Amino acid sequence: MEDAFRFADEFGPLKLIHIYRPSVGLKAVVAIDNIACGPAIGGLRMAPDVTTEEAFRLARAMTFKNAAAGLPHGGAKSVIIADPKMPLRERERLIRAFAAAIGDLAEYIPGPDMGTDELAMGWIKDETGRAVGLPREIGGIPLDEIGATGFGLDSAIDVARQHLGMPLQGARVVIQGFGSVGKHAARFLIEKGALLVAASDTRGTIVDEDGLDVPALIVLKAEGRALHDYPRGRKLGADAVIDVPCEIWIPAARPDVIHAGNVARLHTRLVAEGANIPLTAEAEAALAARDVLVLPDFIANAGGVICAAVEYRGGTESAALALIDEKIRANTEAVLDEVKRTGALPRTAAASLASERVQRAMRTRRWQSGPA
Ligand code: NAD
Q1: Inter-axis angle of helices 346-363 and 317-342, to 10 degrees?
Q2: Identified catalytic residue from 77, 183, 221, 327
Q3: Which one of 92, 105, 328, 364 is at 20 to 30 Å from 257 when CA atoms are compared?
Q4: Which atom of ligand 1 is nearest to the CA of 205?
Q5: In what order do the strands lie in the sheet with 270-272?
Q6: What is the pLDDT of residues 140-176, one digit of tens each?
Q7: What are 282-311's pLDDT values in tens digits?
Q8: What residues does ligand 1 touch, defined as CB less than 6 Å away?
Q9: pTM, rounded to two decimals
């Protein structure tokens, strides 16, 4: 009995459900962590090797991410234990079986995650009436196409650079990972007069102190080519993107790319975390000690989840962009004010902002607030 409750603490998890349907080979876990702020939004992951513990941890991260974003949504995560590369018909059968099994879990709204996509969300919506990250034809707002997360990063950076008294005009930007998040962040920042001086992908880094041609790089990547195919600029290895001096450094690729062993190589004034957990705790502390401001991931990269919340309410693309800008600006202000007032690290300030929101919401809910 105790084992089933091994993750239980003051926030949740509210429900931890194992789903097994032998006739279709479905094994799945749904972790609904906390719904005090509202029905929980969280991705459905399809992977062969995800544990119940990971599902719970990812759900907890969503509780705080959604609260930090100021959304009326709690946190959840679900996992289908299977190889996402299976044939399409088999995949549809499995995902529809999963959807049928969660039909009654009205407090959980699935979204896309690793191994699932907008088509999968369409099947789930068809079975249950609930899902976000849908195809455009059935009310979806294509967040990677419109650049929701890159747009939100730009809002967070604008607030932070004002706190630093740093103009955006002429500011040098470096982006690690020129994918959905990175390329749109670049696009929005250069529109405001910043210069993209370096960008990287898995194949390497491209550098031009006079400014790279962002629209040309976007076309290049859309054609499936590498940044190294850009005809101008200097070409370096992928890791060299850390060494290029700049005012704004944006990690938009992988977790843990900056750590105690390489943080001294960063020469910048502001790091805006586009990727999730791109810096280790040691690296964030080392940068704070050098007066480099780090905007934590769950404040700066919340554009995607805010977009999903607008989609859920039937809102439009322009409403999503307006809400992303409003919320990310307000949350960045709140975090930076707290940092100034208390001297806390930005991540600590952001985490306490989020947990206070969840606790305040829990006080309004029956059976949910913890012991006084
Ligand atoms: P993506 O696959 O579109 O782009 C990732 C890019 O990073 C690719 O261009 C790839 O070549 C590059 N890359 C991978 N490893 C690299 C390395 N070691 N060095 C340099 N470049 C490398 O992915 P994305 O959707 O842009 O997401 C990027 C990150 O942001 C991920 O960590 C993701 O979890 C996070 N994130 C994405 C969103 C979103 O809305 N897409 C929202 C929040 C957080």
Answers
A1: 110
A2: 77
A3: 328
A4: 20
A5: 234-236, 204-207, 195-201, 172-176, 248-251, 270-272, 293-295
A6: 999 988 999 999 999 999 999 999 999 999 999 999 9
A7: 999 999 999 999 999 999 999 999 999 999
A8: 143-144, 149, 176-182, 200-202, 238, 252-254, 274-276, 301, 304
A9: 0.92
